[in-house]
Write a structure and sequence with these properties.
The chain is mostly beta strands and 131 residues long. The chain is built from no helices and ten strands. It is globular. The termini are far apart.
Length: 131
Amino acid sequence: MSVRYPGTLGCGYQSGMDSPAVQPGGKLIAVAFSDPAIAGTQATDLWLLNPATQRLRHLPDMPALVSLKFTSMAWTHDQRLVLLARTAGRDVVAVWRPGQRRIAVRTVQIPTRNSGSDSFVVWERSTQHRR
């Protein structure tokens, strides 16, 4: 299946699709279309791809101005999409659940990332009780 960017965020020669994130169970795929040089900054635009219908749906509050090398996303087991990003010189964590009208964003302090990777792992405490 071929996915063409449906939005208006730059279509320059450096623009492209960033690493997608597959929802547990595979019902949705979060797809990031990014541009490293739009209006003197960087931006990403997130869309949800439903592989069964091959349709894209735009996430609310997108596109976003972010530092692309410091931005990535992952799904949680309870179907939330979590983004870790740097925007306006600060680190933020953003959380969105399908159906919500807005993305919840909070400023966070994280250790300096100097490994050259923007990847992260969502770690959740087990909801099961220990015996």
